[in-house]
Amino acid sequence: MSDVIKIEKVPVENGDGIIALVSINRPNKLNALNHEVSEGLKEMCIWAEADDEVRVVIITGSPPEDALEGKRAKPHAFAAGADISEFVGKGSDEILELFADNAIEAIWNLSKPTIAMIDGFALGGGCEVACSCDLRIASTRAIFGTPEIKLGLIPGYGGTQRLVHLVGYGKAMEMMMTGNNVDAEEAHRLGIANQLVPSEELLEQTMKIAQTIAGKSMHTLRVAKETIRAALDNGLTDGVKIEAVAFANLFDSEDKEIGVKAFLAKENPVWKHR
Ligand code: COA
Fold this sequence. Notes:
The protein is α/β, with parallel strands linked by helices. It is built from 11 helices and 10 strands. A hairpin with a 6-residue loop joins β1 (5-11) and β2 (18-24). α4 packs across α5 (159-167), α5 (159-167) packs across α6 and α9 (218-233) packs antiparallel against α10 (236-250). Coenzyme A binds at residues 29-30, 32, 74-75, 80-85, 121, 123-125, 147-148, 151.
């Protein structure tokens, strides 16, 4: 994996496997998503999907380095967007090709649970990375926004679509038309951030949630994710039908038998598909 993507493997507490703590590591550029970061994230997704050890993926931004003498410290960032310097002189053909197979879609398409851990700026493409994860745990200094309009652009990694689902049509319009940021409290109120915690507790709280999820059956988690996602692409009537089939199919799974028997025996389930 390249230097701009760091992966720490944290053991799952109640069972085998690991939680992959993935950091975008360009703190001097506020973890902006350049080509190298995008390729690194795609590579990480291929690894995380294929490696049975990986139970949950947490994505975050590296913290700022110590300030150089006489210089101010850089702010904390999850990611301050696509790397704007790579936009200069590019035309639609090149951009269509670059954005067709992008890191944000790779994260979105992971079948395993994903959590964005946000401490600082999550702007533009950074906000889109966060919105492509299943959960967002934010610190009180997190700042979300879609400032692309100020560059003569709009979000290009699915932000116009995914934000509508998270915050609703009206607020999405406001965010993308004004380019104004949303602070952590408002992001929590709007449903962008699932949880809000002080910066010093962010890692602990995110890990706690990741550990809770990692202790579940991987098979059931996959089915849950796929079925909940169906709500985004289908109307209620079709969505309920999709759920009915998914629910029924789980009755043929080994983990349903394990989970139900463990409950009745007052024991902890030991999942087959861990
Ligand atoms: N692309 C490329 N470089 C970026 C960047 C981005 N999206 N966001 C920040 N950087 C770089 C800055 O150019 C600067 O580099 P330098 O120190 O070599 O000059 C460094 O990161 C620190 O950023 P700086 O702007 O000095 O920090 P700040 O505290 O003054 O402001 C922000 C922080 C987030 C408000 C500001 O960096 C910003 O507006 N970034 C762009 C956000 C954006 O438009 N994102 C959408 C892109 S499509």
